[in-house]
Amino acid sequence: MNNEEVSHEQSLVVHDLGHAAHVHHHKQSFITKYIFSQDHKIISRQFLITGIIWALIGGLFSVIFRLQLGYPDSTFPFLQDLLGHWAPGGKLDPEFYYALVTMHGTILVFFVLTAGLSGTFANFLIPLQVGARDMASPFLNMLSYWFFFSASIVMFCSLFLQTGPASGGWTIYPPLSALGDAMSGSKTGMDMWLASMGLFIISQLLAGLNYITTILNMRTKGMSMTRLPLTIWSLFFTAVLGVLSFPVLLSAVVLLLFDRHLGTSFFLSDIVIGGKILPNEGGSPILFQHLFWFLGHPEVYIIALPAMGITSEVISVNSRKPIFGYMAMVGSFFAIAALSFMVWAHHMFVTGLNPFLGSFFVLLTLLIAVPSAIKVFNWLTTLWKGSIRFTPGMLFAIGFVSLFISGGLTGIWLGNSSLDIHLHDTYFVVAHFHLVMGVASMFGMFAGVYHWFPKMFGRYMNNTLSYIHFWITIAGAYCIFWPMHYEGLAGMPRRYYDFSNWESFKMFGGLNEFISVVALIVFATQLLFIFNFFYSIFKGRKVTTPNPWGATTLEWTTPIRPGHGNWISEIPEVYRWPYDYGKDGRDFIPQTEPVGENENRH
Amino acid sequence: MIAVMKEQKNKIHPHKFTLWVALASIVMMFTGFTSAYIVKRNMANWISFQLPKIFWYSTAVIIISSITIILSRNCFRRREMKQYRLWLASTLVLGVIFVCLQYIGFTQLWHSGITLTKNVSFSFLYIIVGLHAVHVLGGVIALLVVLIKAYNVKRKNYNIVPVDLMNTYWHFVDLLWIYLLLFLVMIR
User: Fold this and answer.
1) Domain spans, chain A
2) Hey, are the CB atoms on A137 and B43 less than 8 Å from each other?
3) Beta bridge partners of A586
4) A34-588 architecture in CATH?
5) CB–CB contact A282 B12 (8 Å)
6) Which of A269, A313, A310, A263 is CA-nearest to residue A287?
7) How far is Cα A99 from Cα A3, in angstroms, rounded to an integer?
8) Which fold has domain B51-186?
9) How many angstroms away from the CA of B130 is the closest CA of chain A?
10) pLDDT block averages, 10 residues each, chain A of length 602
11) The complex's ipTM?
């Protein structure tokens, strides 16, 4: 029986039992349906579109500061029109350069790759793939989006402050962030950063609670934990990481606010600012770094794990092969999640950390290479001899694997405390984390958007534009970040405004220009994606079959445009794992099909 | 949704589970504070302090409030709604008394020269105890909501889940306080 027959049969069942009432009968106004919606699918779209808007802003910032880095001697009069007093005469103000770098990091790490990525796909996929009508608490879910939205508003407003937004780096290390007199970006901009982050943390906690509870408690009949698609496993571990690590950032934020406004000295000691000796005594900025990175490192995996889950699913579906080593995949998710809590000090090797202590962190850091390598191996063996369909989603998933390998290998370099003495705070680090978590996770997100777009909006995205988007983006990503490794090895420090004062970095002038040009092109290509995305929502080719990719998982057993409640009749029961592709001479067997008598167990 | 929940009778109720995960995340926040406290304590310039006696009285109050909320739940299960409201109200009052006692304790500390900004150890004391009090206040507000609902004559509700949630949270802030008190007494 193919899926269309299944859905027909289900709609017949509905008429027989007549209990689809709670799905269709309440008519909703525009506001309850699209704005204050409690439907997980709408909330996921809200997260996605907010994330896209933030990605546009964050990406634009990187283009502006790349102009400065690529052409340190030129002036761009249009910058003055755009930024006003932050670019007098078309030359970027150094203070604002730092603001741009800080906001680029903050926006991309938190608002795009945390809220935009796991917010979108956890909301969309968890109920659909575990077989639930909605999240455990749709209300908390709605609240989580609106906390994120208000965090966004606060952060967005801070961009327009007279003194500029926060500019002490996305890691907001004190004392720079704790003292308003330290720089103009440490004044109101920093307070708004902290307020926004407080709201954001609440949003992530509410979201995480819901994800965990839904996955553990709301699975449909027969959906045991080992029958969950790997996307759900990855989102589960992501949520666990978020729930356990964001509160620690909250405590750091609280302590920092006390230091800023109530005169305590948690992070401040013996500081002279503008010739004035401050009364603060006994604090330690290193303490902040410990608290920050205790969140900050799991945060890296909060960003990376959903992309890994999406990649696993998309690669398996489009290779028409079961995922290789399902349990190894789950185990490595667990290992990565557990290890991610024990490696935070590798961000602090050169802060005066006890070298003996450092050696433990080196060991634990390098251990993460093991589960990561298991995952890469499994993705490659899933691709191996598959009947690969190069859909746009699949290309981005393969692109993720490529970037994850390239960026991951340099992680082994940086994880060594001795090598880190040379490499810390250079462009080598910038290249490493942009490849392995920045661009790679963006690729995971693109893969997810292209793959589930038919389910989200009932239409396809344009393929030609998607292919152009993919090829320029992957080539551009390597052209931007590959040269940065060389710059970093030569000792070029990150976060600097202008390198032309150093004789030794003059040789990189041309290279920096090249990187900036490519960055501009890649940014323009993303506009193509955004156009494709919004155009296809309204005008894309319509989806006519409920299961366009021939996938086994539950979300494709719903109607093409599922309403609130997802399934018209009863929630389907699950009889098998989600990766029965190319089994017993059949292309795929949906999870809802009972295991036949003569069928091999997987 | 209801159908799904019925199917999963032997599983823990999703809202209860959500609360447990939320408690785990609150624990993590206090772990952040207390481990920062330990790290800081091993550095120079740490002045140890004596907790005011009144904190012991507040401890007694919050323990008693935990007992009264258990009693209220027992009455609820026996459908003795009058008793239930009475015990719930007394829990609420005890909660408010607890917060007031903490406040008096802070004023005593302040007057004995242990002010917020004088030393990092004092700052930590204020923040840790203060944030716990904020969590108790949150519980008091929740209690108020449950109590108002219990007095609603128009709509009788015999659903045990909100009562259980309230119980769990209240015992949690109680245990959290006992832990913090022991922590602050033993590690100064």
Assistant:
1) 34-588
2) no
3) A583
4) Up-down Bundle (1.20)
5) no
6) A269
7) 53
8) Four Helix Bundle (Hemerythrin (Met), subunit A) (1.20.120)
9) 12
10) 36 36 56 84 95 96 95 91 90 93 96 95 96 92 95 96 92 90 89 95 94 93 94 96 93 92 88 85 88 92 96 96 95 96 92 88 94 96 94 97 96 92 94 95 97 95 96 97 95 91 91 96 96 96 93 94 89 93 90 85 64
11) 0.86
